[in-house]
Amino acid sequence: MLAIPINVPADTVKLRLEKTLISRVSRAAFYNLSELRFLWLTYNAITSVHPSSFVNLKALRELRLDGNLLTTFPWEGLRDMPNLQTLGLYNNRLSSLPAHAALFLPNITYLDLSSNRLTILPAELLDLWFPLPELQEGVVQRKILGLHDNPWLCDCQISMVASLSMSLGSPVVLMDQLIMCSRSMGQSGMLLMQAEFPRCMRPSVQPTATRVISPLGSNVILRCDASGYPTPTLTWIKTSAYDNCCQQEILQNSERLPQVLESSPQCDPHTWKEDGSLHSVYWLPWVQQ
To answer: What's the pTM?
Structure first.
């Protein structure tokens, strides 16, 4: 079998295609199978999955792509499967887990990434998939995660996931605690449990103000205190130069505005403090009194 068959009955609930020569999953490959709940595409020769392969699979609960040749996975495609709970990507060739993947994982309770080529775990996975207890609402949903058999660079991210899995009432359960470090503090081939990360601490951000009003042309000091180890990296982002309500007024008085109005906010100076805070001075000519 070289391609996914197109004559599968429309009322199919379980579909298993295993040990074939299928090499790709095309766009809307299962569009007519709206009642599908379990889809196994295991141990084939799949090298690519189209981001829209799973359109119309709103009832799908379990997707397994174990034992293929995937180097990337279209995480944004999970939006087409709102009821998906189990995702198996065991034994592929994934070399990275992008930060944006965490955005599409809230409903996943079983994620197997073991036996791939992953080296780094994005910090966003912790913040979005395993939020801090004080940020969680209602009953904590436990999540099963497979990370073993990857050449991890043992850093604070994966260390914190491992530590979290061993705490009482933790939302994360590791399939296998025996995670090996390919590189850690100048050593290799070390169990994560043996590596010491005494200073690892999840980042915490405390902005001092959420709204600042200042006279036109004046300087504004924005402070944001962040703690954690490694030291968090703070990024200032200008979402818009002005509100829609003020746009006409600014255009009418454009001759009074500085010539650098269209440029990004100026940040000078910026100084890191020992407590992890970043003090930035911004000139915001678009801020109205």
So the answer is: 0.67
